[in-house]
Write a structure and sequence with these properties.
It is a single chain. By secondary structure, this protein is mostly helical. It has eleven helices and four strands; from the N terminus they run H-E-E-H-H-H-E-H-H-E-H-H-H-H-H. The strands form two sheets. The protein has a two-stranded antiparallel sheet. Strands 3-4 form a two-stranded parallel sheet. The longest helix is centred in the first third of the chain and has 37 residues. It starts with 22 loop residues before the first helix and ends with a helix. About 2% of the residues have low confidence.
């Protein structure tokens, strides 16, 4: 059996059960992803260069922001991969502690504009090319979100994370966490070519033209799953701390 180099060796999480995959998902979806990714790079190459130059001028180096995210499960356990985005925040830190300042203090007007247009996500096309992401699939969440998911919710990771998905065309960050994860579970039950095309077309209209639900209400960035569960009383302070420590261990070992 192939050794999992992701979460399997980092914490004691229950293995995910196998999910039956369609012919399209097994043999066609990857080819579709590559064609879409190459087409996007060719068609929007000037846009990539233009945004990169603006990020360099407005925020400095590095132009790209990378972050470790949970990827598709291998042998029943989620793997960890690096997602690529254009940088939207400064690196300002607290002068006393050396810790990064809160997101709302580091997110510039330019960064907010990048997010509102979804242009910050353009580099994810390279994740699609290297096979860690798909054009359509459950959006890759944070590791600190993963550790709060139930085993049922974690089934979303039996598919490759996507640039867009059902949750994105049905409210994106304007809908609650439970609804967002339920949309992901609905997607993995009916993955198909026509469904993927429908989601892509709807994404263009909703996210890029009407700019719906890019961030949560009154927040610079979307609320973490654990923070949400703590706020509504579904997890205790002790459980919250334990899960956050688990997330740190996963990141440190990957």
């Amino acid at each position: 059996m192939k050794k999992n180099t992701g979460i399997a060796g980092s914490c004691d999480m229950k293995e995910l059960s196998d999910r039956r995959k369609s012919f399209y998902e097994k043999y066609v979806k990857r080819c579709f992803d590559i064609l879409c990714a190459v087409g996007a790079i060719v068609c929007f190459f000037p846009l990539y260069i233009g945004v990169a130059v603006l990020v360099k001028r407005k925020l400095g180096s590095p132009v790209l922001f990378t972050q470790k995210r949970p990827g598709m499960a291998v042998d029943g356990k989620e793997t960890i991969f690096k997602v690529y985005k254009f940088r939207t925040m400064t690196d300002e830190r607290d002068v006393r502690t050396g810790e990064l300042l809160p997101d709302d203090l580091r997110l510039t007007k330019f960064g907010s504009w990048l997010r509102s247009t979804s242009l910050d996500e353009l580099p994810e096309v390279f994740n699609i090319l290297n096979g860690t992401m798909s054009v359509v699939g459950p959006r890759p969440q944070l590791v600190r979100d993963l550790v709060f998911m139930t085993n049922r919710q974690r089934m979303r990771h039996t598919a490759k994370p996507g640039l867009s998905g059902l949750a994105q065309i049905n409210g994106r960050n304007e809908i609650g966490w439970e609804a967002k994860l339920d949309w992901d579970l609905k997607y993995i039950k009916k993955i198909g070519f026509l469904e993927d095309v429908r989601i892509i077309l709807s994404t263009v209209g909703k996210a890029f033209i009407r700019k719906e639900g890019v961030t949560g209400r009154n927040m610079a960035t979307a609320e973490d799953f654990g923070d949400y569960l703590l706020r509504i009383g579904k997890v205790s302070e002790e459980e919250y701390r334990e899960k956050q420590n688990m997330a740190k261990k996963i990141l440190e070992s990957n």
